[in-house]
Amino acid sequence: LEVKCNNGEGYFVVLGNQIVAPSHLKARVKSFDRVEQGECARLCTENKTPKGEDFECKSINYYPSKHRCEMFSILSEPHGPGNLLENRHSIYAEKFCISDRADDCEAEEVFILHVQKAMGSKPEEKVSGDSITACLDQCFGRRYCRSVVFDAAKRQCRLHKDSPGDAMKNVIDTSPGVVLIENGCRRNAKAIEAPKSRGISRKTPKNTVRRAPERRIVANDVEISSSVDVEWGEWSDCSFKSDGKRFRVRRRNCEEDDQLCKETGLELKSC
């Protein structure tokens, strides 16, 4: 059954990744060319194809260079049977219901996920949470919160008043199981020291959905936020070994005369 979201739908976005459906679920995929990113998100939100046909859409792949929109009626792991693979030419977006606690959010808002990343700053609060959605809900409940880190091993949410949009140098690498989530509702807001009173609520009247401007998921907006991911090459296979453990590597795509880039241009990841 289709889930009805009282406060509109948003999209978790993983840059440089794509969902691949298992062979027995290929029928649950639709692909369309010459579709803009904003249109791709709108179609998924409305569960329609470009021709107006009904299609239950739960996630999308978008290929900016090809203007290709792939719609899926499944979610990627760990929320569904789809496989999430790295592809620097693709953007993966997964639909979810925006919490009723988010009174300053738009429908079709984008929440960028940074896997194995965290904010280097000290969190304002640490609270319990067992999922990305639960941590984001905690963030919605704090007016200062512009990003939140979910630590699966500790079942913990770390709430921050700053975000990767302020400076990517404040983002640090972490172990597996840690995800940094940008609060898309407050991506451009200024950091504040303490919670402020809500004042006049911006929440839309019941049974109406305020739609985000199309720029929320257009190429330029995503490319600015994704520079750290997009400028890297493909991961190698698991042929490298150190201390008895296998790992894969990828190199940064550097300009020939950019020595600093070359010196920091190797990244490792355990297999």
Automatic annotation (TrEMBL):
Domain Apple: 5-97, 105-185
Coiled-coil annotated spans: none
SUPFAM superfamilies: Hairpin loop containing domain-like
Biological processes per GO annotation: anatomical structure morphogenesis
InterPro entries (UniProt xref): Celegans_DevNeuronal_Protein, Pan_app
SMART domains per the UniProt record, alphabetical: PAN_AP
Entry-linked PANTHER family: APPLE DOMAIN-CONTAINING PROTEIN, FI18240P1-RELATED
Protein name as annotated: Apple domain-containing protein
Organism: Pristionchus fissidentatus
